[in-house]
Amino acid sequence: MKFKIKYHVVFDMDYGSSTKRYGNYILDSAEVSSNEGAEKKVVELFHDGSDPDLNPYFNFTRGKILSKKIVIDDLEKVIN
């Protein structure tokens, strides 16, 4: 099944602030059939780093990233 997912990643920085990066992702997996399963799969892919499209590291001008967290903003099934 295909799912269209809008998300953002919160990066906690070493200078005491955080920044967000937004993205869209298409999950196409025969193993996933529900919205809950899709959200779980995307979080898993993000944390294990197996899909570079879920790691939006860009436009950081200073500091180091201390931690990162993905937040799913919207998730919908795509009907073929």
Q: What does this molecule look like?
A:
The chain is of the alpha+beta class and 80 residues long. The chain contains 1 helix and 3 strands. Strands 2-1-3 form a 3-stranded antiparallel sheet, with helices on one face. The longest helix is centred in the middle third of the chain and has 14 residues. The protein is elongated, with a radius of gyration of 14 Å.
Low-confidence stretches: none
The helix tally amounts to 1
Kindly provide the radius of gyration, computed on alpha-carbon positions and rounded to a whole number of angstroms. 14 Å
What is the terminal separation in angstroms? 9 Å
Spatial strand order of the main sheet: 2-1-3
Share of helix, binned = 10-25%
Specify the biggest β-sheet.
3 strands, antiparallel
Shape annotation = elongated
Give the structure's gist in a few sentences.
The protein is of the alpha+beta class.
What's the helix and strand layout?
Layout (H helix, E strand, L loop, with lengths): L1 E12 L4 E11 L6 H14 L16 E14 L2
Antiparallel strand pairs: 1-2, 1-3
What labels would you give this structure?
single chain, 80 residues, alpha+beta, 3-stranded antiparallel beta sheet, 3 strands
